[in-house]
Amino acid sequence: MAMKWHGVMPAMTTAFHEDLSLDHEFIARHAAWMVDHGCTGIVTPGSLGEGNTLTLEERGALWATIVKAVGARVPVVAAISALSTAEAVAQARLAEKSGCAGLMVLPPYVYKGDWREMKYHVAETFKATPLSCMLYNNPVAYGTDFLPEHIAELAAEFSNFHAVKESSTDTRRVTAIRALIADRLAILVGVDDGIVEALHVGAIGWIAGLVNAFPQESVELFNLTVQGEHEKAMRLYNWFLPLLRLDTVPKFVQLIKLAQAAVNMGSARVRPPRLELVGAELAEAQAVIQHALLHRSA
Prior knowledge:
By secondary structure, the chain is of the alpha/beta class. The protein has one domain (about 5-230): TIM Barrel (Alpha-Beta Barrel). The protein is built from twelve helices and eight strands. The chain has helices spanning about 25-35, 55-70, 85-95, 115-125, 140, 150-155, 170-180, 195-200, 215-225, 230-245, 250-260, 280-295; strands at about 5-10, 40-45, 75-80, 100-105, 130-135, 160-165, 185-190, 205-210. An eight-stranded parallel beta sheet has the order 1-8-7-6-5-4-3-2. Helix 2 links the parallel strand 2 (about 40-45) and strand 3 (about 75-80).
């Protein structure tokens, strides 16, 4: 499957059995369900996919399952996140071997290097395979900020660097990148509650979170926005926003999996150190989700 960076591409959650082993049967069904609703690719296992809790072998098995389930219909993108550059390169090569069509490359976890170091890490990962690559910029979560000037520098040097997942929460970054390199890179947004604003200023894709539970609404919101159906888009966006904001807080994994459970498409199971929500925190989240479901037809 040829890599195209556009549309609504789920940052897919990872389903676990009760013993916290990978639930490959459900993973395949979940991926196919989202593609059936119009999603244009699957990205896994990033932060939302609890990638930092998966072994290298589990990653390979996960990618193989999803490629088998939907790889003939949409591209499967491997999220490359590692503590070391050597580990990132190993993940990239395994992703290629597993049949993935593209890579989403994250900065190294924990170590917040300077530009020279971060460029080296990203460059080595880009060079590890010929696969199409998307750089993931999320300074809020990772403490490392790839500025528009940095992105332009990488774009000039690497022919397989094709896209940016811009999650700085600042829509001005979209226009700043485009001002430097025009349409050299596809710009996708990874902040759920800023998607409409980002599309208005030039983004062409959404690496989405709540799509794991609400693919129909996610795809419809994207399409209405790009088609210029402003009134319809805003009506849907206003309903969706309380849910989309669940993607922007530290326990977003637990919250999105809770939303999946509420629509009977998954469970709330997470791997430690994450734990399922309890008490007032759980009740508050359930109230937000149930209110949205009650008014879903709006």
